[in-house]
Amino acid sequence: MIAVISIWGTLVVNLILTVAGYTWYLRHVSKSDPQLPKNPPFVSILVPAHNEGIVIVKTVLSLLSFDYPEDRYEIIVINDNSSDNSAELLNGLQEQFGYHRLKVINTDKTNGGKGKSNALNIGLESAKGSLISIYDADNTPEHGALRILVAELLSNDKLAAVIGKFRTRNKNATLLTRFINIETLSFQWMAQAGRQQLFHLCTIPGTNYVIRRSVLEKVGKWDVKALAEDTEISFRVYQMGYQIKFQPRAVTWEQEPQTLDVWFHQRTRWVKGNIYVIIKNAKLLFQKKGRPIRFDLLYFLTIYFLLMTSLVLSDSVFVLSVAGIVHSDLQGFSNYLWLFAVLMFVISTFVTITTERGELTFSNLLLIIFMYLVYSQMWLAVAAYGMVGYIREQVFHKQAKWYKTKRYK
To answer: Transmembrane residues, as ranges (predicted)?
Structure first.
């Protein structure tokens, strides 16, 4: 019964977030882009890059193509202890477009290769801008992304950061990337919109955002121990009384894992990173300064602890009951609930993809049904493995290792 209540409670919360996000979308879909002032602030774009030779040229070219005034932003690539041809490729881009527009910081094993947070802190030391923007090395943001983010940030002095939306640029590569594409639309951008609508709360993603330099310095920059540096810094920003806003008109396209092993390692890192953030901030549940992030803390605690345990229990009882080893008095009741849960998942997820051109297809509807049966179970395996890995690292006092996500041509 506890497992049923936990699973259904999470489904209901996600449904509420989806409905709230969709209503927020309907109210904002016809609004025009925010406008920059005549003299926009100088922006430093930081791009942490470790062995990103396959994708870095395309990324830098897209960043150089922003419609933001050319003399009001710089690009700083932190070529972080790379052993591939990244340095040569970046040097060629510098010679072509100018060293004033593209700066490259080449680190080695003495000061680099220690994860994204460390690379960003190194890049920040060389940045000139009063605003800092972050893009991952596999991103190709749309032409107006930076302009929209900055204009939105300048519209409200209480905003510390503005985040954009990211889409899957290799969504048709494999079945896995098609899963990720729908996941990104349904459980990332729509959930962000829902949390903003209901709680004025959203989380900085790892890419496609701008943040005030003064706020970064006030919160102490990025936590080098955090694998989920985006969630961790979001919590500290909210604790200081600032706000973060979601602006889905600012879009970037990013590569996603195309094979299970790459996906598994990436998501395991996310799980470990979020568990670190939960444990670091758990005490704030009972403190006044934790009020702005209380919903997220409770949500993460539910997802990574209560829900995961409940799903393992539920799946185990289901398998054992089918095998005739155990019998549950709730079996019939649970079967009806399970069918209704699938229906609710499919409908809510399908509604969210209607917001994107080209996604409203019958094949995506079938894919969503398949996601509930397969992809959700894959996530359960990742969550369990990530939690065990985190506990093992803490017991043996090991430093969490940053896993480099594989890129594709």
So the answer is: 6-26, 297-323, 335-353, 365-388
Q: Domain range holding 175?
A: 33-258
* Position 126 in a domain: yes
DSSP string, 48-113: EESS-TTTHHHHHHHHHT-SS-GGGEEEEEEEES--SSHHHHHHHHHHHH-TTTEEEEEE-TTT--
Is residue 176 within 8 A of residue 257, CB to CB? The reply is yes
pTM of the complete model: 0.89
- What phi-psi label fits residue 104: left (phi over 0), alpha (psi between -120 and 50 degrees) or beta? beta
Share the mean pLDDT of the chain. 87
- State how many domains the chain has: 2
Shared domain check, 302 and 197 = no
pLDDT at 118 exceeding the cut of 70: yes
- Asked if residue 13 and residue 77 are part of one domain, the reply reads no
Does 268 map to a domain?
no
Report how far apart, in Å, the C-alpha atoms of 383 and of each of 99, 194, 270, 377 are.
44, 24, 9, 10
- Higher confidence at residue 196 or residue 146? 146
d(CA 310, CA 331): 15
CA distances from 327 to 16, 222, 320, 330, 335 (A): 33, 51, 8, 9, 13
